[in-house]
Design a protein that fits this description.
With 358 residues, the protein is an alpha/beta fold. The protein contains 6 helices and 28 strands. Bound molecules: guanosine-5'-triphosphate.
């Protein structure tokens, strides 16, 4: 069968999910705008997309707390790319979300799950998709423990052969999983049903195999992570501070401490690298900021308090002699005097009473 292939391009970001695995961090905002250091996550995806000049518009497919995302990015002027928002009336799943948001689109679409961080070369991916005249191309990434995932099996030429959902050890034939980045031809969207939540991996992609269409995989072996759980969210910060993923202010250099010029670290306070201390923070004499700690804007760490391996969102106050290790703490929280917290995730406005042990 002969198809017409679209020539222009748009991007579509799937950012409508509730992000339940990342709760409580997603109670007051969608996963795609949780801060990575001091920037909403989606900025990093937009930075990648902006490297492809042919992409003239980014469509955001929204459902959960849509106005939160709109408030951050507006029409995209500050982010430097035109944005359009489409809010689903009900959650339509990843395939339904693409179909609904892409109504009327006649361009090839680059689709991102709104929670993956990578430096994949989009221009090469699009060139590969076009040279091979594919109807759909998926980025795959290798994993260490294939049994935990849905695997995607390919032949040496990159054709996708099948999807294996959480295989048993003796069924494993590959270690590549869907990385949540796709190039899709617009003529394929109509195969998803209307008004039904349809998953892109379980329903939409298998249809290409059933129809014997050119359906390709591009394996990306460099940095890739999804920020879908608190562990991974913390890991992203560590990877950036350890130089495994290059982005400002660390820029791929391990072992740095970045202290905003607008922060105050008193003489007699100790900061172990790598660390990030944002504008307006106050770290008092005798306080200790241990390695792999991120203090968001306006945080305070009082005398004798210690915070290590932790991500602390803005305007949080850690009182005297409190000890915080490997914790994610939501905005405007208060950790009382002499409290000890070892591991865990605290939501926004948490209040831990003095002398607590958690
Ligand atoms: P969990 O509840 O923790 O599984 O997170 P999630 O809701 O984000 O689901 P998942 O990680 O599987 O979603 C992958 C991407 O698709 C995320 O960027 C979601 O925002 C997005 N997504 C998931 N479901 C929908 C949906 O029904 N509509 C839209 N528009 N996007 C969705």
């Amino acid at each position: 069968m002969q198809y017409d292939f679209a020539r222009d391009m748009k991007a579509l970001l799937l950012v409508g999910g509730q992000g339940t695995r990342l709760r409580p961090l997603t109670i007051n905002q969608p996963k795609s705008i949780v801060p990575i250091f001091n920037r909403p996550f989606l900025h990093y995806q937009l930075d990648l997309i902006k490297q492809v000049p042919e992409i003239d518009e980014v469509i955001l497919s929204l459902n959960y707390q849509p106005s939160r995302i709109q408030d951050v990015f507006g029409d995209g002027r500050d982010a430097g790319i035109k944005l359009r928002y489409v809010v689903e009336p009900t959650p339509l799943g990843t395939a339904g979300g693409v179909k609904y948001a892409a109504r009327g689109v006649e361009e090839t679409l680059v689709v991102f799950n709104g929670d993956v961080l990578t430096q994949v070369d989009l221009a090469s991916l699009i060139a590969f998709h076009r040279e091979r005249r594919a109807r759909a191309t998926i980025v795959l990434t290798p994993v260490d423990n294939p049994t935990a995932y849905g695997l995607v099996e390919t032949d040496p030429a990159g054709n996708i052969l099948r999807f294996l959902e959480k295989p048993k050890a003796d069924e494993i034939t590959c270690n590549t999983i869907n990385a949540g980045i796709y190039v899709l031809e617009p003529s394929t969207f109509d195969r998803s049903p209307d008004a039904v939540a349809w998953s892109i991996e379980r329903s939409f992609f298998p249809s290409f195999i059933e129809r014997h269409e050119t359906f390709l995989a591009s394996i990306y072996r460099d940095y890739w992570i999804d920020i879908g759980t608190p562990e991974k969210y913390m890991q992203v910060h560590r990877d950036i501070m350890d130089g495994r993923y290059a982005m400002p202010p660390f820029n791929g250099k391990p072992g740095l401490s970045w202290v905003s010029p607008g922060a105050r670290v008193d003489a007699g306070a100790k900061v172990d690298a790598p660390a990030f201390i944002d504008e307006g923070c106050i770290v008092r004499a005798g306080a200790h900021v241990g390695a792999h700690t991120v203090l968001g804007r306006g945080c305070r760490v009082d005398e004798g308090a210690g915070v290590a391996g932790s991500i602390v969102w803005p305007e949080t106050h850690i009182e005297r002699e409190a000890q915080v290790r490997d914790v994610i703490i939501g905005r405007e929280s208060h950790i009382g005097r002499n409290a000890t917290i070892d591991g865990g995730v605290l939501g926004d406005k948490s209040d831990v009473a003095g002398y607590s042990r958690i």
